[in-house]
Design goal:
This protein is an all-alpha fold. The protein contains 9 helices and no strands.
Length: 237
Amino acid sequence: MSAFALAGGSFVRVHLRARLTLVMLVLIPAFFVLIFASVLGQFAKALGGTMAGEATSAISAGWAAAFLCGALAFFQVSSSRGADRRLAAAGLGALRVALARIAAAIVLGIVVSAVAFATLWARSGIAHPAHAAAAILAFALVYVGVGALIGSLVAGPLEGSLLVVLVFAVDVFSGPSMTSSGGVLSYGPSRDAATLLIAAGTGHGSPGGDWLAVAASVLVALAVALGAFWLAARSRA
């Protein structure tokens, strides 16, 4: 049996077979796009931002994908340390186990992004569907890195999940168009993907530099996730 089937495929199957997970895959994007978007619009106005209604709906789909993937990546690392170390010691090696884990995380990211994209499409339509789909997937993959990194550093499920929520909340309320002020907090992990998704949601094109920035942030996030999965699978002996 391949490394993916052992380390990655089982994680994907368990979550996609769980009824609660499937319900959350529908409810969380619906909550973000249908309800959270209007709340964000009010916050944006209060903070001096200029985010339009189309932009809040679009970016809320990205944040839905980010939140789900960050949480799933965290639990993928924190809940499988022992199993991954045993698989690595049995002959698969830490790198192959880590590659299987990152492949599983990408599969889940695609599934989550597709659900968020479909919710956005049903809610308000999308001016640039292909651009929006790519940006939503970028949100998901960036937060795979965030969740995996936190999972490699924090062992406790409560503490780790709260830290994922904290990073997510700071990222949301310091992102582009949410506030007119700059500073360090304005450069959150999803900033480049948010810029791309806002443009897609409002019917504007994005320059090549924005696409390159998003690609770079995704590659960095996946590299961080791979390192986190490798550390989790590496023997401590």
